[in-house]
């Protein structure tokens, strides 16, 4: 099977169930942005050290990547249709529980931090900003599952804490906002 189909050569693509839409359709923008965030999470994982804490963090982040893939599938589903796999409250709860767990070992924020630190944390900060964009786009998708919006909102919080957690574990200082 060839990877290229040529069906998108005129600026359209297929949603799930075969409906064709313009490649700049809000659904395509939203699920494509989820894909960008997912790829950036993968980059962050690939830059983790070969240590036990990092292996555990990678497992958690890969679970998040899987759910994010399904979020994209929900966004790629036309109104009135349903995918067999639906986002659940448990998926959001998993993010919240991980945030709470990882945040326990972090220094309280007393000033604004800048995105950065280790290469892995920097990638996770970038994924956070992409997740925020995906959320803004998803708001415009007709009849979107409300859990999609909640998940994307919580995902950006998760990625912020994940970046901080990675920097803390790697003993890399977080860059801070300097007021001149």
From TrEMBL:
Name used for this protein in its record: Corrinoid adenosyltransferase
Entry's Gene Ontology molecular function annotations: ATP binding; corrinoid adenosyltransferase activity
Keyword ATP-binding appears in the UniProt entry: yes
Quaternary organization: Homotrimer.
Stretches assigned to the Cobalamin adenosyltransferase-like domain: 3-166
Catalytic activity reported: 2 cob(II)yrinate a,c diamide + reduced [electron-transfer flavoprotein] + 2 ATP = 2 adenosylcob(III)yrinate a,c-diamide + 2 triphosphate + oxidized [electron-transfer flavoprotein] + 3 H(+); 2 cob(II)alamin + reduced [electron-transfer flavoprotein] + 2 ATP = 2 adenosylcob(III)alamin + 2 triphosphate + oxidized [electron-transfer flavoprotein] + 3 H(+)
EC number(s) stated in the UniProt entry for this protein: 2.5.1.17
Gene source species: Fictibacillus arsenicus
Record's signal peptide: none
């Amino acid at each position: 099977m060839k990877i290229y189909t040529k069906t998108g050569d005129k600026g359209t693509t297929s949603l799930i169930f075969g409906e064709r839409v313009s490649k700049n359709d809000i659904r395509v923008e939203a699920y494509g942005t989820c894909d960008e965030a997912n790829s950036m999470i993968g980059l962050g994982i690939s830059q983790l050290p070969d240590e036990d804490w990092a292996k555990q963090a990678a497992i958690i982040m890969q679970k998040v990547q899987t759910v994010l893939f399904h979020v994209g599938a929900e966004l790629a589903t036309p109104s009135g249709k349903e995918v067999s796999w639906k986002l659940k409250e448990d998926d959001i709860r998993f993010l919240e529980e991980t945030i709470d767990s990882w945040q326990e070992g972090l220094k309280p924020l007393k000033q604004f931090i800048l995105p950065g630190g280790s290469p892995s944390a920097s990638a996770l900060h970038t994924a956070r900003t992409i997740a925020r964009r995906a959320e803004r786009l998803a708001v415009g998708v007709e009849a979107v599952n409300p859990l999609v919006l909640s998940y994307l909102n919580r995902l950006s919080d998760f990625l912020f804490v994940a970046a901080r957690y990675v920097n803390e574990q790697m003993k890399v200082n977080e860059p801070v906002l300097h007021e001149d």
